[in-house]
């Protein structure tokens, strides 16, 4: 049916690739509407009855029925529907049977997409279409009295009837009608376009006028035969240029004998063949075309270089000569002319050169359907260097993993040694220096009680305050060396104590955000704290900030620490090399040695952002248990 001037079309083909390609082709045309798909004759009839299309384009050879019966059923049940037959084969009997039951056209697979669309549109107008290669073969009944109920004189009196002229006019190849004197009486539009002449200019010319001089004898021999086999010659255009062409001719019986000549321009075909050959020859890999019996049909120059054989020596030989004792032939024979489209795949095999040396090969196996049957394209690549590089890469990865383990072990040792040394110093301060100062403070207080002079008592009070300040600073030093929160596995608590100390000393307010759900190993926690401590020391000394925001985040199996201040900022290129800013380099080095990264962003007037990330995996042999310290766990 026709809706809003669009032509409804049903596609019936059992080959999924062809079916989908036809569906996409119809969808791409603004005047066509795809309303149904079918994969066999039974479904084709049902789809026509259900959807009432204007045109059914149908593969002739499908399961569950036969094409003539399907055409009859569609014409009987959907009288307005027109059927265009499509087939990979063009046997004369099949074509004539389809036309006899009412098909509105017959195309062979491989017909250009534009001609398929034109045939559908013509069928919707009740006009006939046929592929060029079928036209010559099916015109034979026109000349045989026993094969037809009409003669050429029924079609041709003083002129050809309009219906026959229309058929020839829309043929996708050149068609000439040659009169009894060898003069051209009719040339279709394809011929006029091909040779660059108008109808008037072609009339009364001879066929030999359309070919180079070397082909004139051959062209005359086409006229007068019943039907000649196609001949490869060259056509000559009006401007004198030549083009490759295929000529075939025949004899039409009538009151006066006339000849018909069919001309196909092979320029595009030759160009396509040339491009295909160039593609094969320019491939960096060896390429072979093999038939289903495993015999080599073609090979490119890279095959000669890879295997050491001349290609002439390879043609006709079994592919096992190049890829011996392997399941390749079995794989090739799995592909037959079944309805399912075969799918290519790759295999790793062993190739053998002409000198009997072998090499590892990656072989891509792809199907290639041709008119002669199913062939196989083999693409062969020597992967010796690839395997060697893979081996080197694997060894490099093993060494890298070993190096990473060594680096982690070194990190563990360094962190452990640093923290142990800090613990020892803290213990010494606690057990020695603080005790001595405490004792001195006690004795000083005893001495003060014995003094009666107010001036002497004031001196003693000031001395006592100095000793208390010393004790306070020593306790803070112990905290800096070994925060008690860090000892108990609380990273956020240790950072909060550090931030509180900075707030007390400088007035910088802080916000600590702890969203770290994982519990870092002791070495990693110590490294995170020391790195953050270095960044916060820079904030305290150099930033002139009012606030600082610290975040602990879990990210990619690691810990991301972000420290953002609202200070005066700086130019990293100018400042980081100055004395007093070594801490920024230490932050980056600590993060990198832990297997992480560090990013510092700042600019004058915009504050500074320090981000660093370290993985949370425990380094091998890691242990930072306080019991491991020979000095014990000092408590300030």
Automatic annotation (TrEMBL):
InterPro entries: CheY-like_superfamily (IPR011006), HATPase_C_sf (IPR036890), HATPase_dom (IPR003594), NreC/VraR/RcsB-like_REC (IPR058245), PAS (IPR000014), PAS-assoc_C (IPR000700), PAS-like_dom_sf (IPR035965), PAS_4 (IPR013656). NCBIfam families: sensory_box (TIGR00229). Residues 345-395 form the PAC domain. The keyword Kinase applies. It is a multi-pass membrane protein. Keywords: Cell membrane, Kinase, Membrane, Phosphoprotein, Transferase, Transmembrane, Transmembrane helix, Two-component regulatory system. Residues 616-636 are annotated as: Disordered. The modification 4-aspartylphosphate is found at residue 59. This is PAS domain S-box protein. Its main location: membrane. Residues 8-124 form the Response regulatory domain. It is found in: Cell membrane. Residues 160-230, 272-325 form the PAS domain. SUPFAM superfamilies: ATPase domain of HSP90 chaperone/DNA topoisomerase II/histidine kinase, CheY-like, PYP-like sensor domain (PAS domain).
